[in-house]
Amino acid sequence: MSHDPAIPPAPRPGGEGFRALDAGWRQWIAENRLRHCTAESMLATMAQAGLDPAECERAIRAMEEDPAFLAARKFQQLNAKLASVMANQQRLRELDPLYGHVEKRSRVSPAEFMDKYVIGSRPVVLTDVARDWPAMRRWSPQDLRERFGHLEVEVQAERSADPLYEVNKLEHQRKTRLADFVDRVLAGGATNDYYLTANNEMLGRPGFAPLLDDIGTLPAFCDRSQLARRASFWFGPAGTVTPLHHDTLMLCHTQVVGRKRWRFISPLQTPLLYNHFEVYSPVDIDRPDLARYPLFAQATVLDVVVEPGETVFLPLGWWHQVSSLDVSLSFSYSNLAVPNEYRFDNPRITNW
């Protein structure tokens, strides 16, 4: 049995001191039956919430003949077919004995990159992309402070107290001088409480243009003319975590200072990740709650540590969770010279 959706808020009292079985509870019954929860488990939950057991039992039986519920059952069958197609395609991919290994490659030709990693939809770590980048010799927290410390940046802060800090990232935006943020990172130790992420959009400002000058040769599959408007800068302490989500385009992410651990899950396994809201999964790969999210136990997680000078290629739609193992400076860019704008019909369910 999968977990029950959130219990509806308490309505006005019903008869004989019981809570009223209102529309919220009737929707709850429908959702739980669609999740194949048993009538017995539902009755126990509802009785514990103060509802009349006899009325609840009648409502559960009646739901099986409700026209709207029967229509939902038809759409559930269609959705189950799509999920089974995805699962079977994933099984075929996992026949590859190297499926669970994220390759580290150099000297990948544009044709091979396109065929094996873009069209083939496989993450890879390219080890030679940044070999001539001035950033590899120059970038450091101290360099940021010296060259750009007087400039204001937008960071995420006070993340530790919010389990949904990435979903609520706009609420965590704070402005600060870069010098002050550098000092905070260097003095604060490992933490997930603050992070300068791609959302800062600082590379579009003239004052930070020298950072783009520190980017050397790009892979042949990238369009240099689009770099300035399709690049992002990341800086933060060890301990930062970007929770499990997928992007809506493909990108490269070059690690300049420090190491990051990347975990990937195929987009074909999306039905296992409880993606109820936008591009996010509530599952924490480090501490998965299998009582609440039991399907995640079936997911295959690919794991790789990316070292300074290495570049992750993130294929379209792949789920990923990223953890900084050290103080980290990274540069990401989505200016691939291939179609890189895609539409996802994302759910916006907030009460599951």
Automatic annotation (TrEMBL):
Residues 207-350 form the JmjC domain. InterPro entries: Cupin_8 (IPR041667), JmjC_dom (IPR003347). Gene3D superfamilies: Cupin. It comes from the Bacteria. PANTHER family: HYPOXIA-INDUCIBLE FACTOR 1 ALPHA INHIBITOR-RELATED (PTHR12461), HYPOXIA-INDUCIBLE FACTOR 1-ALPHA INHIBITOR (PTHR12461:SF105). This is Cupin-like domain-containing protein.
